[in-house]
User: Fold this.
Amino acid sequence: MFGYSKLKISLIMAVVILGFVFALPNFVPQSVLKQLPKEAQSWFKPVTLGLDLQGGSYLLMEVDTKDLIKEKLTTLADLTRSDLRAQRIRFSGLTVDDGVMSVRILNAADVNAAREAIRKIESGQLNIEVEESTLKVSYTPDALENMKRKAVEQSVEIVRRRIDELGTKEPQIQQQGADRIVIQLPGVQDPSEIKAIMGKTAKMTFHLVDEETSPQAAQMGKLSPDSMLATGDETGYIVLKRRVVVSGAGLDSAKGSYDERGAPAVSFSFKAAAAKEFGNVTRENVGRRLAILLDGKVISAPTINSPITGGQGIITGNFTVQSANDLALLLRSGALPAPLIVAEERVVGPGLGEDSIKAGTNACLIGLAAVLIFMFIVYGFWFGLIADVTLIVNGVILLALLSLLNATLTLPGLAGIALTVAMAVDANILILERMKEEMMNGITVPKEVIKRGFSGAFSAIFDGQLTTLFAALFLFMLGSGSVRGFGITLGLGLATTMFCAIWFNKVLLMAWFAVRQPKKIDL
Assistant:
C-alpha cells in the first residue's frame, strides 16, 4: 500500500519502538536506574544536563606562555653553555631575561663561531643579534606562535585526562581564544579540588646530587654553572646537577601505593626506552644520591644502592593516601607544558539551574500544546491527531538520540528542540496543504490524494531541511560551547523530522486508511 513493503513498514516501526526504549530513562527515577546492571547503565541512561540547567562550576584557565618561553630559553642557555665549553669558546654573563638570552663572548674572534653554535641548537627558530661581543638570542615570531599553539593544545588534552580520572560527570573542556581553556563542571559546587589539580604543572625530573658543593657554599654564591640549589620539605636545601638524567615524560604508569614501612607512597614504572636510560644512570652511579624533583621542588633524594634495571621505582615522602593518589594522577596524565592560571571562576547554583529547566520546559510544553490544538482546529480530528502523534514521536526519537550520544543538554539545546518542533509542524502542514491542493485540482480518490500529497510536498520539505542542516553544520564546525550544542540538537532534530514527517507519518495515514476505508478526504 502506498508503495511501502511490509519490510519497510517493519523497519520504520522498529525505529520508533527503539526510540521509545532509549528515551525511557529520561522518565524513570534515578533510584530505579541505579538498580540496573552496570552493563545496562552504560547505555541505558538519560540525557545529561549542562551547567546552565543543573548548576555547577565554570573555570576559565589561562596558559602562562611567558613561563613556557622562559623555560625554553633556560634550556637553551644550558645547551649553549655545554656547546661553548665543548668548542673552548670563553664566555661570561650567560643570562635569561624578558624573553631574551644574553651571552658575552670574551674573545671577539669567537663571536661568529659562537653564533653558529647557538643557531645549530634550534635551527631556523632563533633570532641572534650581535651587540659588540654580546649575543642576544630570542625565538622568531613564527616559532613563538607555534610554541604557544602547541602548548595550549597539549594543555587541553592533559586537563581532559586529569578531570576524567577524577570522575567528574560530563565535563566540558575546550579552548577559548589563543591561550585560554574553558572548563565547565556540571553538578560540581566546590571546584577547589579541581583547581588544586589543575594548578600543578607536574613536571618530574631526576637529577644527581652534587656531593662536592655544600648548600651553605651554594647560598654564599660558590656554585658551579653545572649545578643548582634546590629545596624540599624532607631534604631542606640541597645542591643538584643541572642536567636532567631522566625525564618524567618517559613514565608509563603511576599509582598510589605503600612503602616498606606501610606509609603512603607513589610507585611508578617507565616506558621501555626510559627504563633503559634509568637503568644505565643507576648502574653508573651506585652509591650516589639521585634526587626526584616535582615542579622544581625536591620530593626525595635517596641513595642508589644497586642498579634499577626493571624500570620501576617508588616515591616516598610525607604523603597522605589522598595526596599520594593525587600525585599519581598528575604523573599519569602527564606534565603541563606551562602553568595554568585561574582567570575567571563562577559557580552556578542548582536552584538557578532548576529555574532554567522549569522555564525551558514550560516554554516547550506551551508551544507544543498550542501546536497540537492548532492542528486539531485547522485539519480536523483524524488528520490533526496523526500530525500530533507524529510530532510527539519526533520529540521522543530526538530525546533517544541525545541519550544514545551521551549529549549534554543546555539552554541553547532546549532552543534547538523548540525549533525542531517548529520544523516538524512545518513539514506536516506542507503535506496536508499539498493534499488540499490536489483535491482542489479535482483529485477525489483518497488513496491518490495521500500519495500525491506526500510526493508533491517532498521536494519543499527536503529543500527546507537541507538548507537548515547546512546552517546547523556551520554552527557545529565554527561555533564553540553552547553554539555547538545548539547546532547538534538542531541537526539531529532535522534528521528525526525527515524520518517522522515523510515515513512514519505516511505509515500512520496508511493505518488510518486501512481501518477507516474513507470514501473521501475531509480537510
User: Anything to note?
Assistant: The mean pLDDT is 82.
